[in-house]
Design brief:
Pfam families: SnoaL_3. This protein has two helices and seven strands, in the order αββαβββββ. The protein is an alpha+beta fold. The radius of gyration is 14 Å and the shape is globular.
Length: about 130
């Protein structure tokens, strides 16, 4: 599987409420942890990211993930991507919808592509 297919699998897992924590690499050396920025959080280190993603999966449902401009560059053992994604989901009685920007980096480790950095943000007018 290539990096692009891994990103598509991540989106599909999000849509179906499947575990997401396995898409992220285990920590690098202690002085170089992986980082995930979401719409409202900054998670540093694989343990924190995995816990945050498990909590997200448990507390949300009915995800819509519509990729509009996925661009992926892959080189040997590293890849980077950007995308514009329409997201919506339910959390309790609340429904959320955002037009988001995604970017990130993946490394090829042990035969699989894993995220080592991800940033998801909402465009706002300045």
């Amino acid at each position: 599987m290539d990096a692009r297919a891994t990103i598509h699998d991540y989106y599909d897992s999000l849509r179906h409420g499947a575990p997401l924590d396995t898409f992220f690499a285990d920590d690098r050396p202690a002085d170089d942890p992986i980082v995930k920025f979401g719409l409202s959080e900054r998670l540093v280190g694989s343990d924190t990211i995995q816990e945050g993603l498990r909590d997200q999966t448990a507390s949300t449902s009915d995800w819509t993930v519509e990729s509009h401009d996925l661009r992926v560059t892959q080189r040997d053992s590293v890849a980077w991507f950007s995308d514009v994604v329409a997201l919506s989901w339910d959390e309790g009685d609340a429904h959320h919808e955002f037009y988001t920007r995604w970017s990130g980096t993946l490394e090829h480790r042990d035969g699989e592509w894993r995220f080592v950095g991800m940033h998801v943000s909402v465009a706002t007018e300045l």
